Amino acid sequence: MTAGFLSLFRAYKSLPKSNALIKFLSQPGIKTGLLQTEEIYMENNNRRMPEAIEPLFFVVDEKLKSVEMTDKGNQLIANIVKDDTFFVLPDITSQLAELENEHFENEEDPKRTLSCKTMLSRLSVYIPSSSC
Question: What pTM, to 2 d.p., does this model score?
């Protein structure tokens, strides 16, 4: 396997619908080299795939119709918005526990009891309103 086919594989993983790439893959022997490179990185349950996609910002999966950000892409966007925790999910269970404790402490005062919607609105994540 050559570095050229690895670069071609990376281009295919990031922009599989590129017209220039599709035209290049139609040349004899190129598609075969790409498929051989793909086999090398996908063997043993994609064990070597991280080293192939390391320099990419995102990977497009045509079969699943999805786009997955890589660590490098996540870091780029986090630097742009100047928030290192931009892609870090908050611990919802601990936040819910705190809200429930607050709810039980204030239960004797009917004005201070929290409804489900009030509790969910205090969480730092979006939860559809139909969940209450």
Answer: 0.63
